[in-house]
Amino acid sequence: MLYLILFGAPGSGKGTQSDLLVEKYKLTHLSTGDLLRKEIASGSELGKTINEYISNGNLIPDEMMISMLSAHIDNTPATAGFILDGFPRTVAQAEALQNMLEQREGAQTQLVDLEVDKDELISRLLKRGETSGRSDDNLETIQKRLEVYETKTKPVNDYYKAKGLHACIDGMGTIDEIFQRIVKALEGKI
Ligand code: AP5
Ligand code: MG
Questions:
Q1: CB-based contacts of 90, cutoff 8 Å, min separation 6
Q2: What is the pLDDT of residues 175-185, one digit of tens each?
Q3: Per-residue model confidence as pLDDT tens digits over 44-101
Q4: Is 145 a catalytic residue?
Q5: Strand, coil or helix: what is 55?
Q6: Does ligand 1 have an atom closer than 6 angstroms to the CB of 89?
Q7: Which ligand is nearest the CA of 19, by number?
Q8: Mutation test of ligand 1: which of 16, 59, 131 has the most ligand atoms closer than 8 Å to its C-beta?
Q9: Number of structural domains, the chain?
Q10: Which range of residues forms the domain containing residue 7?
């Protein structure tokens, strides 16, 4: 079973490229951001707590996120594998995922890191903010999300580099160009 991690800063194209990769490799798309937004939309108390974190540009606490993700994986019907979009986002989450997958026979992990210039990230997210309705697509929260990415999320790269499971992709250019780069980088690996 493949666990393909789509990694990158806010606005780097994780969701966009996941849609194309799901189609090509017949994988199940698991976006922690989408899971959290669904919980918010349900109007639950948990959703209200989650909304506080997201609209301020902060991460949801590791424990809450890890248990949500593992429950979701366990409840997914048979699949060829998963695209993990937005998880792991801290080294603690990466370690938890590694522990979880070590207990599953035949689990294979690969991380794809989308590298995009900061100005381009901001301009993509501001543009999306015109129509997305996402409470975190405004300049102030975008800047906070980018800061959190630098300090808490980026170190996850080194965790996977050390394991030889890291592929760096130039995430600048058209959606199709980037998709072709990912497919090429995955050749022979998955
Ligand atoms: P999440 O929903 O994961 O958001 P994010 O990481 O901030 O990333 P985005 O979804 O904004 O961007 P993306 O990389 O998917 O890019 P997209 O394809 O949309 O997380 C939201 C929040 O939830 C977090 O801040 C945190 O609070 C919480 N959370 C989630 N996971 C968590 C975890 N594991 N632990 C703790 N907290 C967690 O593209 C962006 C835009 O650009 C789109 O409009 C798209 O159409 C456009 N675009 C894409 N590619 C291109 C291109 N090549 N050229 C031009 N435009 C492009
Ligand atoms: Mg996304």
A1: 59, 62, 152, 153, 156
A2: 999 999 999 99
A3: 999 999 999 999 999 999 999 999 999 999 999 999 999 999 999 999 999 999 999 9
A4: yes
A5: helix
A6: yes
A7: 1
A8: 16
A9: 1
A10: 2-186
